[in-house]
C-alpha cells in the first residue's frame, strides 16, 4: 500500500497528474461521501429541474408543442414563456452545485493537510463550508465575469486568465484570504509557471471530459441513431434517452472533484517552488522536543 501523499511539495507535469488520481484513489470513500453529503441536495434538485426542462425542449424539437420554434425562441419574455421556470432553476442549481463542490473539495484538502494526511470528519467539513461558501460564491461570480470579458475579446485574454483565476479558490481556503488578496497573489504565484499550470489543467480536463462522455454517450447515441435511421420524421428525439442523458450528466459531476484536486496540487507546487512553505514549517518544528512516553524511564 502506498503511503499517504504529501500535499505540500514541488511536482513536475506528470507527477502532478499522477498524484491527483492517487490522492482521489486513497481518499475515494470519504471524499465522495463528502461530495454527496453536501452536494447531494443541489444535484437532486438540479437533476429534477433539468429533466423537466429537457422534456420541454425535446417536445419543442419534435414539434409536439404548438407554435413555430423560430418565433418562440426570442429574447425577453418569450424565453420564459417557451422554457418556463425550469430553465432558470436548472441554471441556478447548477451554479450552486459547482460552488458547493468547490468549497467541499478545497475544504477537504485543507483539513486533510492540517490533520496530518487524515480524512476530516463531516462536522469539520461543515464548519469550513459554512465559513467559506459565500466567499467562494462571490469569487466565482467575479472571476467568471472577468473570464467572460476575456473570452469575448478574441479568446486569448480568457485563455490566459483561466489558469490564473483557478488559483484564487485554493488561496482563499488554504490561506484564509480575501478575494482581493487572492486575486493579487494568484498572479504572483503563477509567474514563470503559467505554461506548466495551463498544461496540467488542460490535460486533466481532457481526461475528465472523456470520462463524462463515456458515461453519457450511449444514451446520446440513441437520439443520433434515430435521426440517421428516420430522417423523414424530423427531429424525432427520444424523450427517454434525453432524460437519461441529463441524469447521467448530473451524476457525472462527481468527476469534477478531480480537476479541483489538480488545482490544489498546482497551488502547493507553486508555493513550494517559490516559497518553500513546507520546508520552513519543518525547520520551525526542529526545535520542538516531544518526549516519547512509550519508552521506559532511564535508570542510572
Automatic annotation (TrEMBL):
Transmembrane segments: 35-55, 87-111, 132-153, 159-183, 195-217, 237-270
Key words of the record: Membrane, Transmembrane, Transmembrane helix
Domain of life: Bacteria
This protein's name: Glycerophosphoryl diester phosphodiesterase membrane domain-containing protein
